[in-house]
Amino acid sequence: MSLSLVAPARWHRPSVPAPGTSLAAATETFAGPVRTAVERVRRCLEEGPSVNAARAHVLASRWREEPLRPPALSALQTAWALVSMRIVGRCVGALSRNASLRDAEAWFIGAIPTPSRLSAGVVEFADREATRQLETIEHDDDLRDLLPYVLDAHGPGSRASVMRDPRTGKARRAKKDAGVFYTPADVAQYIAREALDAVSREVDTPLVLDPACGSGVFLKAVLDLAAGRRPGLDRLDFVERNLHGIDVDPLAVNAACFVLLHECLRSSDRPTEAAPWSQWHRIRCNLRVADALTFRVAAPAPHDANPLEVLADLRTRLDNRYVQPSSARADTEAALFSQGSLLGNTFPHLAAGAHVVIGNPPYAAIGPRDDAAALTQRFASLPAGHRTGWDYFPAFVEMMWRLTLPGRGSSGMVVPLSLACSRRAQLTATRRAIMRSGGRWRFAFFDREPHALFGEDVKTRNTIVFRADASGRPTTETTIETGPLRRWTSRQRATLFDTVDFTPLPGVPIAAGVPKLDGNVCARVFRRLRRQTVRLRDMCATVDACLPRDATAERFHRHVFVAGTAYNFLNAFRSHRDLPKPRVPWSSSKLLCLGLATAAEADRVFAIVSSRIAYWLWHVTGDGFHVTRSFITDLPVNDRLFTEPAKHALADLGSRLWENVQAQRIISINGGRQTVSYRPHASEDLRGEIDTLLLEALGLEVEFLDYLRRFTRTLLFVDERDDTRRRFTDHFNDGGNPWPE
After folding, report:
1. What pLDDT score does 300 carry?
2. How far are the Cα atoms of 350, 607, 700 from residue 615, in angstroms, in the given order?
3. Are 516 and 483 in contact (CB under 8 A)?
4. Distance (Å, whole) CA 214 – CA 191
């Protein structure tokens, strides 16, 4: 039965975060009863005879061998498969409300003469209880939209760690409950659209690979885009020819297969006699349980048979005929984690590489591996000597060029913001490798406040990174394009990705970090500042750290303090005056303490650190939260830039600014500890004068002052149509508008 793809006009996709909605909460409405049903079936199967044989007969891959899984996982796989069959059958209208799990499997297998059935080990009571749970949810458009998340047993995080050590499952379940692993559909669609468009001139039907496919969010996004652009698309044929996925978790791979099967069944306009089982296994040939880190693209050894022909013949035989599963190795860990693989041996269409590589790689530590030495030879992002600190996602960034077709490839991934700004050896090595890889690299950055890319229950800062090398011939030239660290409210999300643009950065190396810049003026200013040889630290008599309570001591009257975190402003201040007696202990988070020789120098340093130029540069080079010692001391400004009159003027402005901001003092208590900060936004006129002096001393273009005004306002207000954010006007010059149009 075919269902319409047309949704009601007012229907909002729950797979996309929106005001007052949460992807995790929306998913849990369905996933809670689904997991309860799975657990009931799993317990029943573990108490009965072995389910390994039935699992192999019904679910095991018919294409290439895959490692065997422990019996406990076989029971869980079987339970998830049975529940998934029923959900898909109900969603496409093939099963009624009264259908049992046995009925669902009978529909799924059809006339295929499998030697055994998964449901044979499920007693009637367990079947009835599971079915009752599944009928507490609506099999509606919301469920269809959320299917990749509902069928995701535990999210695509560090599956490799769970395979090695099941004890980590508890921590991963906690992350799952917070929605950490869910990629919103609009994020997947944006990445898929940009990556596909980058190769559209060279390739009509691009070959796509997701090396951490999870339950198929990105593969579904590609399928939806292709169907939207090509009316009448044969979805099953497109999946078989074009979509490929790898994941270490067999539960995820099976879920992705059910998700894609659902899309093919619900959208099919052609009658077919092939059982869902046959179509499922045709899709399953393109999904592999494996560790993506072990794959490489190289010329395969010659074979007597053409792998493409062998695969095509297998798919033909799968139509309403039973085909034995491929043999499986028992040395599971060696097979899954330690053996290198040629991509073309697993996916014959990808023997030379994929046209498009996309995904959301795991944000987790790699941990101990027997093949660590081999990985250091294969991946520049896994440098020797730092194995205990390795993360997965940098290696997946390298797959953006290592697994794509030279000269005809593109890729896109969503990764942590640390790719752009972390000074860790692994991330520095990754950025150096990017500079050597060739192609056009684009970086889009997303803050976590007021709202976050992954939704309000997953507060992360992210980078969406694209690479394109699709000119028809390989290139060794690397070009970098970047954008600002974006902030937005949930009401702006519908147009968020339409507003993303990029600024070219010719001649800017990125090993130390990828600057987050908005427009050519910003790029020119940034390049000019990089060429400065002066540093703020040269003004300082001492550079140290101190406790917040020390800022009340009289002996620090020629010092400037800077807090270690920031958001709307850098929290710089002089020694506290007239503070009320603390009601709770002071915070133990240390401050940066800059000691100056004279009070006038302290006034100048305070003015420099409080300037909008300093705040902008922090936003450009940092992570939008941490204020590092090196950032402050490396500010490219000191007394050597100023004439004597300018020095006196800057000191006077710093002194006046300090007097003003004390009226904007904020005393906060967090975790039973006190902190003090000083908000500068009510002194924008003074900051403007400070910026003017700095621009002149640095030889920067005057129009940058206008940009700084807009930049500061935009970051604070974010969405000026949002009445709940108009309270910020109170912080600007007694509520007035300091920047008339």
Report:
1. 65
2. 47, 12, 16
3. yes
4. 16
In a domain, 236, yes or no: yes
Return d(Cα 121, Cα 101) in angstroms, integer. 11
- Residue 570 class from Cβ within 10 Å (0-12 exposed, 13-18 middle, 19+ buried)? buried
Q: Establish how many alpha carbons lie within 13 A of residue 396's alpha carbon, considering only the half-sphere containing its beta carbon.
A: 31
Could you tell me the two tokens for 263? Answer: 């899309």
| 244-274 pLDDT tens trace | 999 999 999 999 999 999 999 987 655 567 8
Please answer whether residues 687 and 612 qualify as being in contact, where contact means their C-beta atoms are separated by less than 8 angstroms: yes
Domain that holds residue 51: 23-504
CA atoms within 13 A on the CB side of 16: 19
- Percentage of the residues of the chain whose pLDDT score is greater than 70: 87
- What is the pLDDT at residue 157? 37
* Residues 160-169: contacts with CB under 8 Å, at least 24 apart: 160/248, 160/291, 160/337, 160/362, 160/366, 160/367, 160/392, 161/364, 161/365, 161/367, 162/249, 163/248, 163/249, 163/333, 163/336, 163/337, 164/333, 164/337, 164/367
Structure tokens of 624? 């939008």
Residues 490 and 551 both lie in one domain: no
613 and 494 in a common domain: no
Q: Is residue 291 part of a domain?
A: yes
Q: Is residue 261 part of a domain?
A: yes
The pTM of the full predicted model, rounded to 2 decimals, is 0.92
Quick one: how far is CA 487 from the chain centroid? 16
pLDDT at 2 over 70: no
Band of pLDDT at residue 343, cut at 50, 70 and 90: very high
Domain end call among 479, 504, 529: 504
**Positive or negative torsion for Cα 299, 305, 308, 314:** negative
Sequence-ordered list of residues with C-beta below 8 angstroms from that of 541, at least 6 positions apart, any chain: 595, 596, 597
Q: How far apart are CA 44 and CA 127, in angstroms?
A: 9
Q: What is the largest CA-CA distance in the chain?
A: 93
Residue 17 lies in a domain: no
The pair of structure tokens assigned to 726 is 């108009």
Q: Name which of 507, 453, 441 is nearest 485 in CA terms.
A: 453
